[in-house]
Structure formats: C-alpha cells, structure tokens
C-alpha cells in the first residue's frame, strides 16, 4: 500500500512536469488543427486528465505519446464540428489570439511562428483532418515520418504520401508575406486604418489589392456581412457605411493578432478583431471576427491596455 501511494505521488509529480513542459506544444498543435483557442484548451485539459488516469510507465517517448492523444482528440473534434459548420451563419473564421505577449512566455516558442496567421489557418481548412495533422506535424513541428506514423496510426510511407498530397493542395503558403519586415506591415495597416477612419477613399483604394476580399464572422450573434465582400469598391463602401454610422463610438487599439499587426475596434457593446493578409505591399484580405464567443479574450485585454 505504501509503495502504491509512493508511485501515485511520483506519477503526480511527473504529470505536473509534463504539463508544464508540453502544454504550450499541445495547445499550439490543437489550435492550428481546430482554429479555436477554447477548443484547444479543452483538448489540452482532457489529454492531461487522461494521462493522469493511465499507466504510462512503459511509455518511452512521453512527448510523442501526448501529441498522439491530443491529435486523436482533435480528429474527433473536427469530425463533430463538420455538421455545425454547415449551419454556421456567414463565413467562419478562426478564433483570434492576442500574440502581444512577453518574450519570455513559453507559448511564444510555438505560437509566435508565421504559421498561425488567419490566412494560414483558413488554408488548412482545405485539408482533411488527417492531412492537416500530418502536414502540421511535419511542416511546423518537424517530426520524422516514423514519429508521425505512430501519432496518426498510419505507416511512414503513407504519411509521406499524405504530406505530399497536402503540400500539393496548399501550393504556396500565404505566410510568405509574413516574413517581411513587421514594421512595414504595421505601417501599411496603420495607413489603412487612418484612411478608413477619415474616409480617405483614394488612399484606401490605393492600399487594397485589385482582388481584395473582406470576410466578416459574426456567427449569427451580432450583425456582420454574411457574404464575402469582393473588390476594393465594395470593401470601401462597407467601411464608409460604418464610419458614417459609428463615427462617434469609433475607437480602437493596436494588437499583434496571430503574429501580425491587428486592430481591436469597439462598436457600442460589440468588439471586432480586424486582421489583414498582405501580399506584395498591398492588402489582399481583411478578416473581421465579431462573434462574441471568439472575441471575449480581447475585451479584458483591451480595457487593461
């Protein structure tokens, strides 16, 4: 009995150490898989609760074991979310994350990579659940195919094929522009926001790419454009309508959102998180997340800062 209690105590200590060491990794993997910080947190908690109840004394690589558990839970969550997406009101966008964090934050090792931009996460939606897992484990986390095979339950050769297929589907990743100077991108976004605020049509049109698109995610809970807005003219009219209607309430704060310059806009009792995808010095996509289920994290931060 004494030995059993001692073993349990050792397991608790080990589980706490694993939690501290691997929570950032599992969260970042689950977030990239699901596009939801709330769901990613659930996956992490569920994974460690399960580990605490299991005999893992024979596990030789706890990191891969935890990744396997988290990945399997993500795959199940993706399947269950498919039906909900079909009835989602308007465009679905990933839940934004405030990455204006401290340099010493351990999450930064995994989260402040280029591959968490809204454009990148939307790109991953083109892949099947398994393709997404294999692609991320190889492309972002640099796992060997043998390790990936163990995590996803397929052969190493099959994983190589899945990865190649995923790469072909995705083509050129949208985060190439993210490797440019962040200050240049922030200056461009700041110029756009200034033009939007003052109604400077010529400047707004100059900053938008000819095929620019705006996606707005209200989730059916707040007013938002239920269809994509295509082209600079329609995007300008959208913002001009907002400027005239909400000029008095308009105020906003800069944030680094998903690793890139973003903007938190307050409209009466609603919060909009506005992010941008920039290519070749012009804004190619604008993403507005207004669904309160996805903006709650920013409300407290915006008030504090």
From TrEMBL:
Organism: Paenibacillus oceani
Annotated ranges, domain SnoaL-like: 189-282
Subunit structure: Interacts transiently with the RNA polymerase catalytic core formed by RpoA, RpoB, RpoC and RpoZ (2 alpha, 1 beta, 1 beta' and 1 omega subunit) to form the RNA polymerase holoenzyme that can initiate transcription.
GO MF annotation: an example: DNA binding
A Pfam family annotated for this UniProt entry: Sigma70_r4_2
Record's protein name: RNA polymerase sigma-70 factor
Domain RNA polymerase sigma-70 region intervals: 19-82
Domain of life: Bacteria
InterPro entries to which the protein is assigned, alphabetical: ECF_Sigma-70_Domain (IPR052704), NTF2-like_dom_sf (IPR032710), RNA_pol_sigma-70_dom (IPR014284), RNA_pol_sigma-70_ECF (IPR014303), RNA_pol_sigma70_r2 (IPR007627), RNA_pol_sigma70_r4_t2 (IPR013249), RNA_pol_sigma_r2 (IPR013325), RNA_pol_sigma_r3/r4-like (IPR013324)
Residues of the RNA polymerase sigma factor 70 region 4 type domain: 119-170
GO BP annotations listed: DNA-templated transcription initiation
